[in-house]
Amino acid sequence: MSLVKLSKDSTIHEIVSIIKRDGGVIIENFLDDDTTQDIYQTLSQQLELIPNGVDDYFAGTKTRRMSRLFARLPQMPLVAMNPVFLDTAKAILQTPLQAWSGELQIELCPDIQVGVTQAIQIWPGQKAQPLHRDDTVWMWQHPVYGREARVQIMFAVTDFTEENGATRVIPASHLWDDERAPKEDETVAAEMKAGDALIWIGSTYHGGGANVSNEPRIGLTMSYDLGFLRQEENHYLSLSTETVKNFPDELKGLLGWNMSTTFVGFVEHDGIMMNPIDMLNNQEFKTTGII
Ligand SMILES: O=C(O)CCC(=O)C(=O)O
Ligand SMILES: [Fe+2]
């Protein structure tokens, strides 16, 4: 079995159906060649200043990991706001819940937020990363009951080949329970041309591949997660207020500067539970020293 490749012009319904069946899908030409080349130039220069990981087990001592990508890479909104990724994430994560509020039965729909951002440069000699599920960060249980926690992208900044450490994925492993162990021989390599992207969910087993080639592989990963979970990367400390203020409101909200529909993330001001995005955008609050 290999991963299905779809065109970026596929419908969200098609993309979501394949992800729900296989746990992941590859989108061809997710970004155009010029944008991909610009991202490559910026990231490869910045990665020169980043040291290798220090742990030989998971991070990899021949792997460089650089986060805070919304502060470092001007093209990040093109990845995050790309409808192929954003709408797929919304379609998978925003499943409604019926809840009672007194005598009223209300429908609640979870918000989504950016979890982690990371450029991952795997150098020759790096061995394969242990296979894992990324929703383990919140100790999610499997088979997933009710709702997935994460929809993630791995954008191929360079070509991804079996030899240079393309992400390895176990198709349909999102359906397994927590007893079943992932095995290397069940994986397939997410081979991609630079500009393609793998989109997968938090319950699918995967891991960075071994790089047995003579060139580094660069991937750019970013997740959308349920808005009421703790963000894996702390964007409040990683991004300056100035950086966030220059983004469109939707992106400010997605980065965490939004109060969820269930009031998660409010800031009190004069006895009112305020939405931080209103405070970020409103001059009046700047003088109060709240942000
Ligand atoms: O680098 C890759 O291909 C995958 C990395 C990964 O899954 C992780 O670090 O959690
Ligand atoms: Fe992972």
Automatic annotation (TrEMBL):
InterPro entries reported in the protein's UniProt record: Phytyl_CoA_dOase-like
Pfam families found in the cross-reference section: PhyH
Keyword 4Fe-4S: no
Name under which the protein is recorded: Phytanoyl-CoA dioxygenase
Key words of the record: Iron, Metal-binding
Coiled-coil regions listed in the entry: none
Gene Ontology MF term list: 2-oxoglutarate-dependent dioxygenase activity; iron ion binding
Keyword Transmembrane helix included in the entry's annotation: no
Domain of life: Bacteria
